[in-house]
Amino acid sequence: MKRIALATLALAIASPAFAQQGVTANEIVIGTAQDLSGPIVNFSKAAVNGMKMRVDEINAAGGIHGRKLRLVVEDHGYDPKKAVLAAQKMVQQDKIFAAVGSIGTATAMAAMAIYLDAKVAHLFPLSGAREMFDPVAPLKFSFAAPYYDQIRAGIKRLVKEKGLKKVCTLYQDDDFGLEVMKGAEQGLKDIGMVYAERTTYKRGATEFSSQVAKLKEAGCDGVVMGTIIRETIGTIATAKKLDYNPVFVGTTASYSEIIHKLGGPAVNGFYSTCTTNNPYADDPNPKVKEWFAAYKAKFSDDPTVFSVYGWEIVNMFAIAATAAGKDLTPDSLNKAIESTKFPADMFGADENTFSATKHLGTDRAMLCQIQDGKWKSVSEYLTN
User: Fold this and answer.
1) CA 384, CA 155: separation in Å to the nearest integer?
2) DSSP state at residue 266
3) pLDDT tier at 39, thresholds 50, 70, 90
4) With a threshold of 0.85, does the pTM exceed it?
């Protein structure tokens, strides 16, 4: 009996990580809260597939220090209350080690404290809000350049390149729209300009005639779009009908293949800030082309930029968990993220670096434009 007790004690001392929630001798459990039944289900479906693809790739290569990854997926329907319930389930029942790629600002905000209070990392959410990394806190990291910084740099580049004289804005009347409006406002201030006109719309709006007429009447030759998908397409289509053709520019919120698939030729020329390249079957990068084909074979669907985001999120977690070493704990993971360089990847994502005082990987974005029905990057990464 004494020998058994001593052996058990020795095993416990030699294997402290095995007592860590979500980490066993053979497995690391991570979770993601997504919208699988609400208004952005297409985004979440693609993101989850991208995550699953990278998980399978990592496991096929032997895992992380011999441990396989297991991904738990929960649906919040884009509802903050359901996001709280999803977080509670994953923390208390599934015993996840880290929450990765939470989608939506309001949903992530509602649930974040549940993860962090349990010392479960909240990593790389699919949100451009500054609250995802600010204020700095242990286990709270973001890889998404904030809408504010994206558009601040993007509008300055477009003013210079296009010779814009009257920049205006159309934005959603909520926190998201305000972030975009204020970011471009600061960008204009940086170069000695101000908005010539501002106009808003309520979330869920489908009619933009009055707003577009107002912008046209003001003579706006550049329009900052605090819009998402439907509103972007609707505004540009309305402008075309009114024979009004300013330079329209949005953020990563409108950087989606849905824009050109549904918008058709009318949206050619539309600019958006972007943080990675949209994948296509004929991608000029042979590695991306191969990845596209493998994804389609696996999921019977074309990958989207959200598929790329999902792949990148799990890839960054794997880099950090590998750097944290065999004894994987919340503290070792936190230290690893703060001290590890996450290199640019095959999709053109920016290099991410963190520190003890900086939990945002990068604040830079490129400019992308729809040309001949496809997104193309048209700038380097821009710095304010």
Assistant:
1) 11
2) G
3) confident
4) yes
Nearest-angstrom CA–CA distance, 259 and 171: 17
pLDDT for the residue numbered 344: 96
User: What does the alpha-carbon distance between residue 303 and residue 307 come to, in Å, rounded to a whole number?
Assistant: 5
**Alpha carbon distance 39, 18 (integer Å):** 39
Alpha helices in 300-381 (DSSP H): 305-324, 330-339
Tell me how far apart the alpha carbons of residues 253 and 237 are, in angstroms, rounded to a whole number: 18
Closest CA to 348 of 326, 378, 318: 378
Question: Is 215 within 8 Å of 192 (Cβ atoms)?
Answer: no
Asked if 101 and 309 count as a contact pair (C-beta separation under 8 A), the reply is yes
DSSP assignment string, 7-66: HHHHHHHH-GGGGSTTB-SSEEEEEEEE-SSSTTHHHHHHHHHHHHHHHHHHHHTT-BTT
* pLDDT confidence of residue 316: 98
If you average pLDDT over residues 265-269, what whole number do you get? 98
H helix or E strand, kind and range, residue 373? none
- State what percent of residues in the chain have pLDDT above 70: 95
| Dist. CA 313–CA 352, nearest whole Å | 12
Quick one: pLDDT band at residue 251, thresholds 50, 70, 90?
very high
- Round to whole Å and give the CA distance between 225 and 247: 10
Contact 342, 130 (CB under 8 A): no
Distances (CA, A) of 100 to 93, 146, 237, 315: 17, 18, 36, 11
Q: pLDDT tens, 344-376? A: 999 999 999 999 999 999 999 999 999 999 999
Find tokens 């949100």 and name the residue.
127
- Indicate whether 89 pLDDT > 50: yes
Strands 366-371 and 271-274: antiparallel
What's the rounded Cα separation, in Å, for the pair 335 and 333? 5
- Mean pLDDT in residue range 87-96: 98
Q: Provide CB contacts within 8 A for 263, sequence distance 6+.
A: 232, 233, 236, 237, 270, 370
**pLDDT tens, residue by residue, 130-143:** 999 999 999 999 99
CA angle 360, 361, 367 (to 5 degrees): 105
